[in-house]
Design brief:
Number of domains of chain A: 2
Helix content of chain A: 40-55%
Strand content of chain A: 5-15%
Largest sheet of chain A: 5 strands, parallel
Distance between the termini of chain A: 57 Å
Helix content of chain B: 40-55%
Shape of chain A: elongated
Structural class of chain A: alpha/beta
Oligomer: heterodimer
CATH topology of the largest domain in chain B: Rossmann fold
CATH superfamily of the largest domain in chain B: P-loop containing nucleotide triphosphate hydrolases
CATH architecture of the largest domain in chain B: 3-Layer(aba) Sandwich
Number of domains of chain B: 3
Strand order of the largest sheet of chain A: 2-1-3-4-5
Structural class of chain B: alpha/beta
CATH class of the largest domain in chain B: Alpha Beta
Distance between the termini of chain B: 95 Å
Chain lengths: 212, 486
């Protein structure tokens, strides 16, 4: 069986609610997996696809909000949609601040839940794409020689080959060779492209070489 | 007239019950027999003679001078010596009181003064006197009474003691009163013994009081100030107490309110969660069915399954409500014989501050001697509080300025009737049927359990809670059956 493109995880202690949500969400063609508790969810092995989590804020054992905090702390940034029977404003604010997609009061409108799920999945898709991109860039960065790694921030900061050469004690021609290797290895089509990649990877541009 | 300061030294009277007296003592006795006189006067003069006093015994009927002398002679060892140096004189009344045929009382007073002076100048300690009044006639009574009064007023300044003897026989009540008024104290025979009867003793203390007056006045002022200060302190304390009491009542009412809110809050959370779970499943399944039915060829098996769950969740939701209601009503049910008036009064006191805060004036019309009802005090309080707070809230929401609450109790054919009537807008006619339903509410913040629970409580007491028709405001009433002794 092939992996689904996306998965909706539902954590609720009420089996009847779980089944109903599964039925509804599956009716729009999404894949749903059910859990009775946060612990069950954490301990499960989940396929690495775009997903989101529909979660009752009142869970046995660990509360939904504590669970959310825990996930955020462990860099598990799965988008969360809270559903609750009794949500007050402070609770909602806390959940939203911690990055929840939506906060729905039970019983919710079916379309509200489905919309929130779509938003959550999209957010996860984007997040994954960005993560993949960053991972790829890191890989490319790893393939650079120390010399290439050294001139990268200087090039990005807008220095001419001659200036870079002066900076690292090499001729302009040598810098030119390193630079074209650098561009090729990083898969950058232009200097602007390389600058964008550096930003994504958080490569610091030396203060003194910032274009004024 | 001798006016030297009164010697603080006390004189022995020789009369056991009297004991020692200061100079200036003026007392009297009513006697019935000669023996009465000798009983007191012999020891009286014996003590006088032996204390170095000049003694003057004025005798009259029924005692003769001879008898007095003989009696003293028997009692006093050196009597002849005293008689010889005139330390004692025993004289008949005529010689003392009369000038010619008429009494001359002014002269008598002068005589006493002169005798006292004489006694002092001759080295006696003072004058000891006893006089009898048997000679006195009714016509002279007034004058004699005035004389006695004058003696009584003057004697405190003299080194003199005087024992006046009055025959009891023939004395009128008015005369006895006069005598009492004009002497400091009396000796009376009672149960064969003698007793001292205090009379106008204050007169004796008059000079002493006068001397102490200034000091006393000062002390009175000081004491008055102290008392005023104490009074002020007490008044302040009372005000503080009153404030504390009010604060206590307020705190109690606040506590009751908070408790109620907490109970309700807890309840809301529980109900919301317990009821919302099946409702969520139900609504979600319902929506699923609707979505599927929009499709071209709905999968009937799938739909049947969802609808079966809808039915089961609906049943579950209603079971939750029943369970909560049972929980609320059944919680620690304790039936005792109750006086419903006392419960009404208790709740009134509990909510007094709350009512005041909401500007609601409460009036109670409680029928006396109501039969007792069997019930759970806490639950009945809960019902009353709920009805009262509903009334208060209804009145607060209305624009009507005057907020009046009337609680009545009365005997009815079915038991005891309690009515709670407010001056609010009343219950809309269309809603009257629904107000006792669970979760039905007209209040913006209400959860619609109060009346439902109250209704259940009263039913569980074998009574009935209803909305009665009323000309103004809402009138809720309940009837509780009367306890029948089994």
């Amino acid at each position: 069986m092939s992996e689904p493109a996306s998965i909706v995880f539902v954590v609720d202690d009420d089996p009847s609610v779980r089944r109903a949500i599964k039925r509804l969400v599956e009716s729009v063609g999404l894949h749903v997996e059910l859990f009775g508790s946060a612990t069950e969810f954490i301990n499960s092995s989940r396929p690495d696809v775009a997903s989101c989590l529909v979660l009752d804020i009142r869970l046995p054992g660990i509360s939904g909000l504590d669970f959310q905090r825990e996930l955020v702390q462990t860099k598990n940034e799965i988008p969360m949609i809270f559903i609750t029977a009794h949500g007050d404003i402070p609770m909602t604010v806390r959940a939203m601040k911690a990055g929840a997609v939506e906060f729905l009061t039970k019983p919710f409108r079916d379309q509200d839940l489905l919309d929130a799920i779509q938003v959550g999945l999209e957010r996860d898709r984007v997040r994954r794409q960005r993560q993949a991109e960053t991972a790829m860039l890191r890989e490319r960065l790893e393939s650079l020689t120390p010399r290439e790694r050294e001139i990268l921030p200087l090039v990005v900061s807008g220095l001419l080959n001659k200036q870079v050469g002066a900076e690292i004690g090499a001729t302009e021609a040598t810098v030119k060779v390193h630079r074209s290797q650098l561009m090729r290895k990083m898969g950058a089509s232009s200097l602007a492209d390389l600058v964008r990649m550096s930003e994504k990877m958080g490569i610091a541009v030396p203060e003194t070489h910032r274009p004024s | 007239m001798s006016t030297q300061p009164v010697d603080p030294q006390l004189r022995k009277t020789g009369i056991g019950v009297v004991g020692d007296v200061p100079w200036g003592s003026h007392f009297f006795m009513f006697y019935e027999t000669k023996e009465d006189l000798l009983d007191t006067l012999v020891p009286y003069f014996k003590a006088g003679l032996e204390s170095g006093e000049l003694c003057l015994w004025v005798v009259s009927e029924p005692l003769t001078e001879e008898e007095a002398r003989n009696a003293l002679r028997k009692a006093v060892p050196k009597f002849e010596h005293y008689l010889a140096d005139r330390s004692i004189e025993i004289v008949g009344e005529r010689r003392v009181y009369f000038s010619g045929n008429d009494p001359d009382l002014q002269r008598v007073i002068r005589t006493w003064a002169a005798k006292t002076d004489y006694a002092v100048t001759r080295g006696y300690a003072g004058l000891r006197l006893s006089a009898n009044t048997a000679w006195l006639e009714d016509k002279d009574w007034k004058a004699f009474s005035d004389y006695e009064s004058e003696v009584n007023n003057s004697i405190s300044r003299w080194r003199m003691t005087a024992l006046c003897t009055y025959p009891l026989a023939g004395s009128t009540a008015a005369e006895i009163l006069d005598v009492t008024r004009t002497h400091q104290f009396a000796i009376a025979r009672r149960n064969r013994g003698w007793e001292v009867v205090e009379t106008s003793e204050l007169k004796q203390a008059k000079s002493e009081i006068k001397r102490l007056n200034d000091e006393l006045e000062g002390r009175v002022i000081e004491r008055t100030q102290q008392l005023a200060a104490a009074n002020e302190a007490m008044r302040k304390e009372m005000i503080e107490r009153q404030h504390a009491e009010e604060a206590l009542l307020e705190a109690q009412a606040e506590l009751a309110r908070v408790q109620r809110a907490l109970d309700m809050g807890e309840l809301v959370v529980t109900i919301a969660h317990e009821v919302n779970q099946p409702l969520t499943a139900l609504v979600t399944n319902g929506n699923f069915c609707l979505r599927r039915l929009e499709g071209v060829t709905p999968n009937l098996d799938e739909l049947r399954l969802a609808i079966a769950e809808i039915v089961s969740d609906g049943t579950r939701a209603s079971a939750v409500i029943s369970r909560i209601r049972r929980l609320l009503v059944k919680g620690a049910l304790r039936r005792t014989e109750l006086d419903i008036n006392r419960i009404i009064q208790g709740v009134s006191i509990l909510l007094r501050t709350e009512l005041k805060r909401c500007h609601v004036s409460l009036r109670t019309k409680l029928a006396p001697d109501l039969p007792r009802v069997a019930g759970d005090q806490v639950q009945l309080q809960q019902v009353l509080i709920n009805l009262i707070m509903n009334a208060v809230e209804a009145m607060r929401l209305s624009a009507e300025r005057s907020r009046k609450l009337l609680i009545r109790s009365a005997k009815s054919t079915d038991g005891v009737l309690v009515q709670v009537q407010d001056s609010g807008p009343g219950v809309e006619p269309g809603l009257a049927d629904r107000i006792f339903e669970p979760f039905f509410t007209t209040k913006p913040e209400g959860i619609g359990m109060g009346l439902s629970i109250s209704h259940t409580i009263i039913e569980s007491h074998g009574g009935h809670l209803s909305l009665a028709s009323s000309s103004a405001g809402a009138l809720f009433e309940f009837i509780l059956p009367v306890t029948i002794n089994e």
